[in-house]
Amino acid sequence: MNADKRIPLHDLQKITNDFSEHSRIGRGGYGDVYKGVYNGREIAVKLLHVDTLRGLDDQLFKNEVGNLLKAEHPNIVQLVGYCYETRNIYVDNNGANDFSQRIYKIICFEYLQGGSLDRRLYDHSFAPNWSTRYNIIKGICEGLNFLHKCKRRILHLDLKPANILLDSSMEPNVADFGLSRLFTQTHTHVTEKIIGTQKYMPPEFIKDHIISPKNDVFSVGVVMIEIMTGPTGYSNSFEMGDLAQLRGQVIDNWKNKINATSKYPLEESNQMETCIDTAMRCVEPDRNSRPTIAEVLDILNKTETHIPKRQV
């Protein structure tokens, strides 16, 4: 890991008031996130849970730091620094004086004022116009395409709204690389462990533990649907086995909104229909029927031809 990015533990304890509840801005399965100011800049400080029983935390930490160091892109969250330190802590063990080792594994990244996409999707006033929703979809695909096109391809493997952060301009940043892996360009892999959020996992991963770039494509398809429908749209339609009906609902709902708010209703309506149709292709049960993320991006780019750039 890059020594230039190392931040001393005592500095992080100071700016988060020793990781106080008052400084905490988020909680997750693998760690808590705190807000602080470091060198005059607001940063998010993710303190990973120490999980020696599962033996995952070391690898999660190395994966996230390593991949963030490699990933410099406008739609990838920016790494500010990291900390990996061990401290001896005095403990009273049933009356016996003893010391225990505490390992601190911390990742620091830019603080994004818009928060996580999952929280915003529950807000009925969030991004009422199509162009903002489309920009979020496009930015997520741009970030994912960058990861897939790296010299050693990076698969995210846990893409979901909670791992997409928004800045003050609603520009999305793909985050949380703890489960990601580096792969060569051509291989499909099989893993023994299933880790992540099942709702965003493709069937071949749940059933046969198969990993390929199409895992991320399936996930981005679910995310696209939720951006267009709200956080429960995909789940409700999947449980009822009626994604075709979902398509019709999305089109009717957004056509009404676009006609009421857009200067380019025909063009944006066509773009919206292309987005829902592409999302449906992304969640095909057969991974060979799904497009690549580069193909998804190409499809989206073609929808922008007749819409002025300021509207896209």
Automatic annotation (TrEMBL):
GO terms for molecular function: ATP binding; protein serine/threonine kinase activity. Its EC number is 2.7.11.1. It catalyses: L-threonyl-[protein] + ATP = O-phospho-L-threonyl-[protein] + ADP + H(+); L-seryl-[protein] + ATP = O-phospho-L-seryl-[protein] + ADP + H(+). InterPro entries: Kinase-like_dom_sf, Prot_kinase_dom, Protein_kinase_ATP_BS, Ser/Thr_kinase_AS. ATP binds at residue 46. Residues 19-307 form the Protein kinase domain. It comes from the Eukaryota. Belongs to the protein kinase superfamily. This is non-specific serine/threonine protein kinase. It comes from Aegilops tauschii subsp. strangulata (Goatgrass).
